[in-house]
Amino acid sequence: CRHLAFTDCGYWTTWLGGLCHWTGTRDYNPKQMAIREKVFNTIISCFKRHGAENIDTPVFELKETLTGKYGEDSKLIYDLKDQGGELLSLRYDLTVPFARYLAMNKVTNIKRYHIAKVYRRDNPAMTRGRYREFYQCDFDIAGQYDPMIPDAECLKIVHEILSELELGDFRIKVNDRRILDGMFAVCGVPDDKFRTICSTVDKLDKMSWEDVRSEMVKEKGLSEEAADQIGQYVSLQGGMDLAERLLQDAKMSQSKQACAGLTDMKQLFSYLQLFQVTDKVVFDLSLARGLDYYTGVIYEAILTQTGPVPVAAAQNGAGEKAEEGVSVGSVAGGGRYDGLVGMFDPKGRKVPCVGVSIGIERVFSIMEQKAEASAEKVRTTETQVMVASAQKNLLEERLRLTAELWNAGIKAEVMYKKNPKLLSQLQHCEDSGIPLVAILGEQELKDGVVKLRTVHSREEIDVSRAKLVEEIKRRTLDV
Predict the structure, then answer these.
(1) According to the annotation, is 49 in a ligand binding site?
(2) Does the annotation place 94 within a ligand binding site?
(3) Domain at 2-373, CATH from 3.30.930.10, 3.40.50.720, 3.40.1690.10, 3.50.50.60
(4) 245-256, pLDDT tens digit by residue?
(5) pLDDT tens digits for 104-145?
(6) Residue from 85, 122, 95 nearest 3 by CA
(7) Is 95 annotated to bind ligand?
(8) CA 323, CA 201: separation in Å to the nearest integer?
(9) 120 is an annotated ligand-binding site residue
(10) 336 known ligand binder
(11) Are 116 and 59 in contact (CB under 8 A)?
């Protein structure tokens, strides 16, 4: 989260390469924004392809709206200073505000996407794309439908987005909170410890089993026997075959809750086969996702490779050793939360929901690294043509032609000098990646033509003024 008025400290640390290491926020230069816009467009295009509508909600909510929804992560919520009115907090994610939106507006059926900033008082890790202020890109399906059909579509969307962005190899882990709770029950975990043990299991992607087991036993007070039994299950991975095997398991079959989850998991994998995405999806019993509001299927997408050292890592100001490779980890996550909307409805009416959130900041970190490593130039504008002059005293003619092009919907630029040198104008096009130059001179004005120059090949042709717009459009179709 951007500290601004929310920090207890009145000082800011030095900004390095657009990153403030202490505050966990960053500025974005035009090149970074161009890459970011491309990523957003890919994601939004996918959401729209699946029929989603767009909504927006306030950046802050009543504190009571957010309290008690995030388990042990509730301590990461940013509270706004009490100014004698309602107690407010910055939103932690987009899911809880969406549930509140459904309840307040009495919406029982919607497929929506929402892209906006969220805020967390987390320890920033710039090398892993983790910030305190960051965007989330959410897709959710709300409504009463047959089991696992919407859930399968959410996983298909994750598969499509990560494939289209070409981030590298990835894997989507799936589990079910009912399977987890059933597993905890048959392993001897007391009911009142389910959520806190779940939060500890959720750390298995960051900690070894030995450390997780130690936290369960020494900090959470779980018996060693129960912890060891949990250890046997959370090491299991597979697909539909694992769900079938667990349905026959002597212990798991004793839990109706677990059996319901396992039956749905089999159904989910049958739909994923039809969607042709099972090559990337694995049923993983160690996946827990510590948020309290999940009630059914949960999933998380992780990148399974490391990339080059990000610029931010090499330039960090905290004296940290830059890593040789960066493991970005989770890039998407979500699940089913059938009870959340009912918490905000006066009559407790539930609206079943399932959704996914794309970790856009982590995706952006990888895309930025790839751009740095590539020799390909990133364009920061969409200008199609530069209106230039080869001689002096032609400012009015350049402005007149530029206005004609703007009025025709052409993206055009003109240099803000009365008598710029032609070489300076051409150099600006080279530097900015502008593909065409429309050059005016005394002879061109007399003949009613414009000299149209292709920047990269330096080829020039005379085009009649009447056909200039058509020719520019034809030559910049792919720009």
Answers:
(1) no
(2) yes
(3) 3.30.930.10
(4) 999 999 999 999
(5) 999 999 999 999 999 998 777 665 657 889 899 999 999 999
(6) 122
(7) yes
(8) 26
(9) yes
(10) no
(11) yes
